[in-house]
Amino acid sequence: MDRRRITLKLLRPTGERKLFAEVDRVWTIQPSPISQPVTYVLECKWGLVRKESLEGFLNVLKWSMDFGFDSQNGRMIKQGVIGIFAGTAFNPKDKVKVGSEVLSVAQYAARMSIQLLKASDLNEILHKRGVHKSVTVQKICTRARNEVEVRETLSKIWNEPNDAQELTDQLVAKNASVFDFERQLETAWRQE
User: Fold this and answer.
1) How far apart (Å, rounded) are the C-alpha atoms in residues 15 and 22?
2) Which end of the chain is more exposed for a tag (fewer CB within 10 A), N or C?
3) pTM over 0.90
4) At residue 1, does pLDDT exceed 50?
5) Contact between 35 and 25 (Cβ < 8 Å)
6) Domains, the chain, with CATH or none
């Protein structure tokens, strides 16, 4: 578990999460002295984002003691709480049916007041930080062994933007056996 992740207490189980759920970051800002504070809750998924991923995040926000409340219309997210979901790729074939409407994952997220950060948005943030344009979140995700390694690599790159290219090259060397195994599987699949 990443020590920087935030643990939320849940009032009821949501999916595989029974009593607690983790999110990546939580921060609160007060835009002006006379306005209400705004709390941002960040969840990251370093793989293909499906509607189930967004629904799980939405349920965590609704059923957490900190960010949800009971209303006449059922459990809702408190006003002033904004969910941000960062993902590398959103499944374009995934559709969500809401009443008689069929929505894309992005449209569904917007309707649920969840902001989406796409890989291109994350790349722009990294490049503004001083990371070379050849280094992208997509490359890191395809070269890392798992989600933990993606997080560690992005954290190192954030702290040392000038070493980003070297860090991504190290991932390729470090995970060569994983890539060889994937190539073998792909070759066997094509021969069938």
Assistant:
1) 13
2) C
3) no
4) no
5) no
6) 1-117 (3.40.1350), 128-192 (no CATH)
